[in-house]
Amino acid sequence: MPSVVRSLLLLALAALSASASPHDLHDHDHAAPRALPGRWYHHEDHPAYALFRRGDTDGATYPAVGSPEWSAGYPDTDVTKGTPQAWIDALNAAVKAGKVPNIPVATSTGGNPTYPQGFDPNGPEVCSATYKCRNKEDLWDAPDGVFGSSFDDGPLPTSMPLYEFLKQNNVITTHFMIGSNILWNADAFTYAFETLESDIAVHTWTHPYMTTLSNEQVIGELGWTMELIHNSTGGRLPKYWRPPYGDSDERVRAIAKEVFGLTTVIWNQDTEDWSIGESTGTTRPKVDASLKEWITGPKSPGLIILEHELTNNTVGAFMQAFPLIAQNGWKFESVARLDGGSVYQNSDDDTDDVTPQAVGVFAAASPSPPASDASSTASSSSNSKPTGTGTVTSGSSSPVSTGSTANPSATGAAQDHKNGAMSRFGSPMSWHSAALATSLSVLAAAFALS
Ligand SMILES: [Zn+2]
């Protein structure tokens, strides 16, 4: 129930109880009763409501989720097509203000994206999350004793058993959703948002290695996913995003923050659950063992385990381990709620009031962005390290050589699924190729129809 309505009902009940006060039992005739009249507020169809109505949407009218009108107008795989000028303007303003580091676009080489000679992925200028360089404003750890829960790559048909399990257990989690998957699984999306009241966050439009994209492509990947979520949730703007493969750097991170107001979320443990069933992937028993080890292990820092709503095995491993979380004294918490603040940029959660706000105007609306309140470890002043005024990078090809590459395996125990996807299987798409390929082919068919 919207909080406004709830408040009004409470007030109405108070008024009713006041009018039924012991005064009615007296027969003396001093002052007139001071109880409020029975109905002192306007009905909800009164014009006054139109002036102030926010409730659980921003008051705008959006096409029904799943309708042709709702799914029209989004890109297929070329996310730079039809980019709204406002996003480009916001990007240019951020670049001009020196808030987007002018570092090279990384190159895909069949392994981890690489940077030209002279650009250290673990140095402060680049600080690539792929190489486990931690920007203090990013979210890597949960607070001590907290199990920070999230699932990537949904919504998919395989999401539904997970959603029903979450519902049965009455817990809320964060879903880092792929924009194109939302288009093709509208029912699952609606279930997650409306029935579960789970927290919706951004996992890009086509699941690329973000550091290998131009500034405009980064804008499209984030912007279109933001736009679809915004238009499917009564106007809510996600506050968190997780880069696919955990691949982000200072440039990508800055664009996400300065243009879209997004805080980057990574993880501190990874079962590689996505690779169960792949020829050289992990196995379900190994995933189960890892989950058990971490959940029965130390509580500092708290856990943020990379998990996927991708297959019956990834979902099943979580469901099997779920009872252990409470049994071992963890507090289960949705990742988007770890900082105790709002889940969305313009709304507390899935049911609270929404302040109208468009996608991609963060830079213009907030010349001095508020300090990130997302990270439990956040303390530094700025996440961007201007290295020059720079210009907007054009196109997808940036002539960078395959230069220095640090070995990420030497810097962190947790393996992220990019390592497997790229180096073990040779194809960056193999991690969830079936799911995404299905989504994209259906997407392409629909665009041909519309
Ligand atoms: Zn993913």
Tell me what the structure shows.
- The chain has 450 residues and is α/β, with parallel strands linked by helices.
- Helix content is 34%, strand content 6%.
- It has helices at 3-19, 47-52, 68-71, 85-96, 159-168, 179-184, 186-195, 215-232, 250-260, 284-295, 312-327, 362-365, 417-424, 433-449, and strands at residues 146-152, 174-177, 199-202, 240-241, 263-264, 269-270, 303-306, 331-334.
- The strands form two sheets. Strands 1, 2, 3, 6, 7 and 8 form a six-stranded parallel sheet that branches.
- Helix 10 (284-295) links the parallel strand 6 (269-270) and strand 7 (303-306).
- The longest helix has 18 residues, at 215-232.
- The radius of gyration is 24 Å and the shape is globular.
- The two termini are 36 Å apart.
- The model is unreliable at 1-27 and 367-450 (pLDDT under 50).
- Residues 152-153, 203, 207, 244 line the site of zinc ion.
- It is an enzyme of class 3 (hydrolase).
- Keywords: Carbohydrate metabolism, Cell membrane, Cell wall biogenesis/degradation, Chitin degradation, Cobalt, Glycoprotein, GPI-anchor, Lipoprotein, Membrane, Polysaccharide degradation, Signal.
